[in-house]
Amino acid sequence: MDKKIEKKRWTARKITILAASAVFAGFVIYTVVLGDTRSTLNVERDKITVSAVERGVFQEFIPVTGTVQPQRTIFLDAVDGGRVEKMFVEAGAMVKEGDPIVLLKNSTMVLDAVNREAQMLDQMNNLQNSRVAMEQTRLTLKNQLLDLENQIANAKRVFEQNQLLVQKQLVSKEEFERARDNYDFLVKRKALTLETSRTDSIMRLAQVNQLENSTDRLKSNFGVVKQNLDNMLVRAPISGQLTSLNCEIGEAKTSGQRLGQIDVIDAYKIRVPIDEFYLARINVGQIGQCEIAGKPHRLIIRKVFSEVKNGRFEVDMYFEGAAAEGIRRGQSLQIRLELGSEEQANLLARGGFYQKTGGQWVFVLAQDGKQAIKRNVRLGRQNPNTFEIIEGLQVGEKVITSSYDTFGDAEKLVVK
Fold this sequence. Notes:
alpha+beta; single chain; Elongation Factor Tu (Ef-tu), domain 3; conserved putative lor/sdh protein from methanococcus maripaludis s2 fold; six-stranded mixed β-sheet; 3 domains
């Protein structure tokens, strides 16, 4: 009798297949749910720049370029117009204070000076004549007073004698009255002469004062004209170098026209244009550093010109201490202008990554250096060399600081 053979439900082959399926399903679930799903990009180590986060001194500064200029520049302008008659020096020459530079000629001004001088001389003659006449009148009145006093004295003596004689009836009453009337007349005449003298003196004194004032005005006007004539000879107001002279023989120059300039070359300043973005942060007293012939020099801001032109404003910087030797007008200097004091901070070197991230995230290398992970950070102040790290990075960590333009949207980099 045949024996029924039951078919096995769990064969070795079936168990193997089920086990393999379970392992595969578990792998898929782990990869999808628990695994690293970030997009990954392979990069070559020699094509990236890696910088370590360091603890150090941070100072905010900006690089600027300044131009050497003399501290004092005196401009030569034509006070009054004229034709260039003669040139005594050439541009570039060293001049001393008072040296003649250019001679101008103005015929109209010369004629005006001659007329004013003639008017002044006429007025001075009138004044002198008035003073002489006043003195003559004074002497005449004095002489008249002396004569009157003598007549009065004689008349008084006759009157007093007749006054005694009439009492004794030795002279007639008519003769006595005639002597008395003569005496009274002379006394009154003296009083009138004195009053006339005072009035005449006041009037003549007023006339002389008026002539003196008029003469003074004419002298003052002539002095101005003469000074203008003297200004036709342009002289050096200070000692220095005549750096420009815009004149040619026979050329006509108008009043106020620029003739040239003199630079005082024993002291220099640095004129520095700065981007208007920093206007609120630039003040008198701030320090800058520069190198001239391999030697460091400190500069200090002495003047800030707040007017903005073409997106820039200017400052004047002076050497702190002795100026550098051998510098020349127009020479350019690279200056490190400090915006703040030195402080301890966590620092990261500048690099092309900032253009892509704006300082909001970076790729941080793992300790083994084989991969880099995207991490959010916060950067603070910056200078041309470093960024100040506010949060997100620790000292010793390494960051890719080269450009991220080729990384696309990758969140993880595999470094090979």
